[in-house]
Every structure is written in structure tokens, then in C-alpha cells.
Amino acid sequence: MLKNKVALITGASRGIGLATAELFAQNGAVIYANARATGCLDGLAKELESKYNTTVIPLYFDVTDSIGVKSAFTRIKKEQGRLDILVNNAGILKDALIGMISTDMIREVFDVNVFAVAELIQYAVKFMKKQSSGSIINLSSIVGVNGNKGQLAYSASKGAVISMTKTAAKELAQYNIRVNAIAPGMIDTDMFNSIGEEFVAERVAGIGMKRLGTPSDVANVCLFLASDLSEYVTGQVIGVDGSAVV
Length: 246
Fold this sequence. Notes:
This protein has one domain: NAD(P)-binding Rossmann-like Domain (Rossmann fold). The protein is built from nine helices and seven strands; from the N terminus they run βαβαβαβαβααβαααβ. The protein has helices at residues 15-26, 42-52, 66-79, 103-131, 142-146, 152-172, 190-193, 197-205, 215-226; strands at residues 6-9, 30-35, 56-60, 85-88, 134-139, 177-184, 237-240. Strands 3-2-1-4-5-6-7 form a seven-stranded parallel beta sheet, with helices on both faces.
């Protein structure tokens, strides 16, 4: 479904990003897989290349580092000359009750979840406008849609991702660039499980399907949005939540 398409996936070392990288490789994409820790994707890249006969290139940079981001896009331009898919998956989760939220916490969350996403979109669009094609997929969250107690900073950042998605979709449609968001619910990742077993059990009880989602559940929607199957879909927020109540 993605043969000969070039994709950049941020936060690809685990969870949703990792599952998306593998699924994209399985479907023939040339993948630039991003992570912060140098070397952490080297083994995965070789494994996916061997398994799916495609190209997987690790790119090590922090999405909040403007110099690193620019260097990554410069490399993609030099090596591929195009970029068809951007998956803005990298994100952080910081929770605190109102009255306990510091300015530094808000700034840290927005640096990764909002400002970095905006910068990555702007670099990707430079490629996509010239091509008159492209798909940008932003990972939001169910709490960015509905809010949730104790998650003011995080939910605000993911709400901002939705606003950016809808605005960018309107602005870029004339260039045949599609911009969509995915709003996962409770997904079985390290980030989600960091809230503790008691809270995980409480959250699962509020899911209509009575199970946590898997990274693959989200990766499948990423594949749809990245592929030509969604060529007339833009500005949408697709929930992947198993009928969860937050």
C-alpha cells in the first residue's frame, strides 16, 4: 500500500511509533525512523529491512531541537528528494492536578507535543508542496477531544494538535496535502502504563470493548491515512478508543 513512498515517523523506538514503522515497512515504504537515543533503532532497522526488503534509516534527534530537526530534513532531501508521509507520533505525558501545575511543566509538554509538531509540519510541507501530494498524520488523544481531570497540560496540548490539524488541512488542501489526526484512547504502551496498575484497571472498566487498545490498532489507522485509500480524507480526527469513556 505504500510502495516507493518515503515516510518520516517520530518517536519510533516503542509503542505506537514502533508498530507504525513495522507496518509501513511491511507495506513497502522507505522509512526514516526517529528516536532520541543514539543507536536504539539500529537493530530494528536491520531486522525490518531484512524481513520486508525495504529501506529503514534511523534518524537520531530530539524533536525539540531545531538544529537536529533541520538536519534530518536536509538528509531526507539529499537521499530521497521527496517526503510523502509525516507521522508526528513523538510525545510526552505529564499529569498534575490544578493548583499543582508548574509553568515549566506546561512549557515542557507544549515544547514536545505542540511546538515540535508545528515545526515538523512546516519542514514537511516544503517537500509536499513541490510534489503536490503528501499525508501528514498527527497523534492527538481522546483527552484532547474530551478533556480529563488531572490532565490539564496534556489535554490542552493534544487539543492544540487537533486545532493545528484542522487549520493545516484547510490551508494545504489546495496543494493536495492531506492532514489528519488520530485520537487514541487507552493504548497498552509504556506511557499509558506509567499511570499505575490501579488506575489502568479503573480506566479499562470504562472502555466499551473492555480491553486496552494495542499499538497495532493505531498503526492500522496510520496506514489507512498514509495510503491512497484515504486520498479524499483530510481535516479529520479519528478516534481509536474502543468506545472509551474518559
